[in-house]
Amino acid sequence: MGEVKFFFGPNHPGMHGNFSVHMYVEGDTVVRAKPVPGFLHRGFEKLMERRLWYQNLALVPRICVPEPDINEMCYAMGIEKLAGVEVPERAQWIRMIILELARIANHFMSFAGIGGPLGLYTGPFWGVADRDKILDIFESLTGARIYHMYIVPGGVRKDMPPKIQDMILKTLEYIESRLDDYDNIIFKNRIVHTRLKGIALLDRNTALEMGVTGIGIRATGVPYDIRKIDPYLFYDKVEFEVPVATEGDAYSRLRLKFLEIPQSIKIIKQALEKMPEGKVNVPISEGNALRFRVPKGQVYVHVEATRGEYGYFIVSDGGEKPYRVTIRGASYPQTLYGIEKYLPGTRIEDVPIWLDTMGICSPEVDR
Amino acid sequence: MTSSMNNALEKVKNAIKNVKIIEIDEREAKIEVESENTLPVLSILKGEGYFHLSLLTAVDWMEKNEFELIYILYSWNDGGKFIVSTKIDREKAEFVTVMHMWPVARFYERELHEFFGIKFAGNNDMKPLFLENWDDIPPLRKDFDPLEYSKKKFPEREYQKDIIHEAKIIRGDING
Question: pTM for this one?
Answer without folding.
Answer: 0.88
